[in-house]
Amino acid sequence: MTGLVPPGVVLLTDRLVATGGLERVVAGAVAGGVRWVVLREKDLPRAERAALAVDLRAILADVGGTLVVAGPDPLGGDAVHLPAAGPYPPPAHRLVGRSCHNETELNRLTTEHYATISPIWPTRTKPGYGPPLEVAGLRALVAASPVPVLALGGVETPEQVTACVEAGAAGVAVLGALMRAENPQEAARRLSRAFQEAITQEVQRSRHGRTEVPQPQSATKEER
């Protein structure tokens, strides 16, 4: 893995389903090991969304975390996650990710640093969205991708995190399993532990002749 790429468990926000409030969930997830958060909330006016970005960056700052903003406007930062539909070419920010769902969309990537692949499993956030790729589909798209991949969609359990890592994903993007959690800190800790254990096992296997799996890099602050 090269460049600045979100590793491990990446949290996607949805204030409408966040148990106890969005900032509570983000703070709990960060306490549980999450270091990357993607701010969605695209229905908010820009001023409200920008204010929310400031608040979430403050939560992440204490642990050297990074806030990625969904859409081309980084809201005062320098990290964005773009939809598959555009814009093309991508803006020249420090970190640019893009949502992809098939090999055709992966082939359009140019200067993006990473891609999400979805949906891996059925998801309550987008019921009926798919069809789900499942692990075999994820593995095939990881092999076809020119950039590191985050597995997205229906990732809720440690076993699913492990399966995604074994399929070659650099990390997992999670929404419902953390946004709806009664205890987001503990939920994040379980998923993060599963990722670390799985990536460690993959690295150990690579040392015995298997293709090497990229190791996660340390997160850096979005703003210094």
What key phrases describe this protein's structure?
globular, TIM Barrel, 8 strands, 7 helices, single chain, disordered C terminus, eight-stranded parallel barrel, alpha/beta, about 220 residues, about 15% strand
How would you summarize this macromolecular structure in one to three sentences?
The model is unreliable at 211-224 (pLDDT under 50).
What is the strand and helix layout of this fold?
Elements: E1 8-12, H1 22-31, E2 36-39, H2 46-61, E3 66-70, E4 79-82, E5 95-100, H3 103-107, E6 114-117, H4 134-144, E7 149-152, H5 158-166, E8 171-174, H6 176-179, H7 184-206
Q: Strand pairing plus helix content: what structural class?
A: alpha/beta
What is the end-to-end distance? Answer: 23 Å
Averaged pLDDT: 91
The total count of helices amounts to: 7
CATH superfamily: Aldolase class I
Write the CATH architecture name: Alpha-Beta Barrel
User: How does the major sheet shape up?
Assistant: 8 strands, parallel, barrel
Rounded radius of gyration (Å): 16 Å
Give helix and strand order, one letter per element, not per position.
EHEHEEEHEHEHEHH
